Amino acid sequence: MPQRTRHARVRPARLTQQQGPGYTDGTAPAGQPGPGQQGGGPQGTPSRLTARGAGLAMFSVFFPGTLTAGWLHLAALTGLSFVAGCILAGLYTKRAHLLTVATMPPMIFMASLICVKAISSTGNAVISTAEGSILTLSAVAPWLFAGTAATLVIALFRGLPQNISDLRAGLRGNLESGDPGDPGDPGDGWSRS
Hints:
Layout: H1 51-72, H2 75-92, H3 98-103, H4 105-119, H5 125-139, H6 141-158, H7 160-172
Helix pairs in contact: 1-2, 1-4, 2-6, 4-5
């Protein structure tokens, strides 16, 4: 007699009208959301970015905007690309990553600006990059303020206060309840005494 385990036999699922063809095992065909999932695109909500993805998206907007603005000598284009990248990152980031994304735009802009100035420098590369970066930062300062403020406002309406509360609770470590961590957190093996 074979020994039965917890996963002894998998019964095939029946198709429901909502699932349609391709959902017999509860999974979706490639490129389509599964049952009960919302996918990006015209029917579902848009896909959300992680903090890293939002940082990469901001860099992908800041870098070409700053490079093009340098070639065309339009400081406003640098500022517009910064504001556009900030707004897009604030709108399309997952709620759990809003705190990180709210603080990233100035750092990512500075990194993209240094890259652009290093690429387009003439003469002494270090002096030209430093000088160009400082002059560009002074020219687009109001845009930097507006983009950072727009990111914060969008994040506030999307759930930034809850992220801050979660961070505070995590830093406190839930010492009041004696719980070593979140119920879903396996912990690190250390116990509090």
